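S1.2 Input.
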Amino acid sequence: MAMTPHTAEVARLYQTEFIRSARAVGVLWAVCTLCFAIIEVVILIQPSWVGTREVHYQGGGPVPKTGTLGLFEVCVESDWPVPECRGSLSTLTPLPAFQSPAVLVCMSLTMVWSSVGCLSLFRFCNAATVYKICAWLQLTAGFCLALACVLFPDSWDCADMRDLCGDGVTSFSSGNCSVHWAFVLALLGVLDAAILATLAFVLGNRQDALLPEDTKDGEKSTIYYNTHNALCNIFCYCY
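S1.3 Output.
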């Protein structure tokens, strides 16, 4: 059934608003995905998952150590301006007690950067398909990161933690230490992954639903082509 001139005009206006909204939300989602990938790198390499609390030394015993601990390094304050660190990310060997959390964070990092790489598929594939692929990758990344955040405090009962935080350390009890900003950032990363995955699923499912039922296939293709080009141009410029 042919559209009346009034209906065709309304459909064109609707498509224009859809393209603008899809571009804005899609670009915002893509930028947040890239930021999340960078945050994952910081979470992995920073030795600031746990740190010693401020203690007032009163004498009469050994001076308590002060420092921080991460998945790959233990850094203890010394007389030098730079902390004395044991372990290194360059060897890709995490601390023995934290091997499982480190592997899970690495898996999460791989999934997130894979979703960033999938953004280039907007030039070749259907936008809804790309959004859903990225959503599943981000959902898996969030699950791995959440599991790492659970296993990390469960692994506190180890020699490295007792050496830094005292003999009162047990699983889920950090003794003289407390969680630091890298661990808090990992927890926020789990929430970020859930939000980005949900938004990607919504964007993927709404690609067809937001269009008028009587829109022609050729007009749909134009909308997808324009949306793809907007995202691809931005990321080609960034890279």
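S1.4 Remarks. DSSP finds six helices and five strands in the chain.
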